[in-house]
Design brief:
- By secondary structure, the chain is mainly α.
- It has a domain of about 45 residues.
- Helix content is about 50%, strand content about 0%.
- The termini are far apart.
Length: about 90
């Protein structure tokens, strides 16, 4: 997507999307967490569409490991709990 935006021009693409060029630049940087609605808007502007399909022969595996912090916040009523605070309770 970065290459598509680079070809068209960052400012022109941002203008066509109705967003700030600085925000668009930061969203296309490496390591950024680009939201799905922004991805869809950029792809639609360039005439692409995003399709997600399940692969054949793949069984879903149960989630393992720690819960993401945002899920813990939702479970604990919106308060921010770190590892230490969770262990005390």
């Amino acid at each position: 997507m970065r290459e598509l935006v680079k070809k068209r021009g960052l400012r022109q693409t941002a203008r066509d999307l109705g967003v700030d060029s600085g925000n668009l630049y930061r969203s296309l940087m490496d390591g950024s967490n680009l939201k799905l609605n922004r991805i869809e808007a950029i792809l639609e502007l360039f005439g692409y569409e995003l399709k997600i399909s399940k692969r054949k022969g793949v069984n879903a595996k149960p989630l393992t490991g720690q819960w993401p912090r945002r899920m813990l916040r939702r479970m604990k009523g919106g308060k921010k709990y770190g590892k230490r605070n969770l262990q005390k309770r």
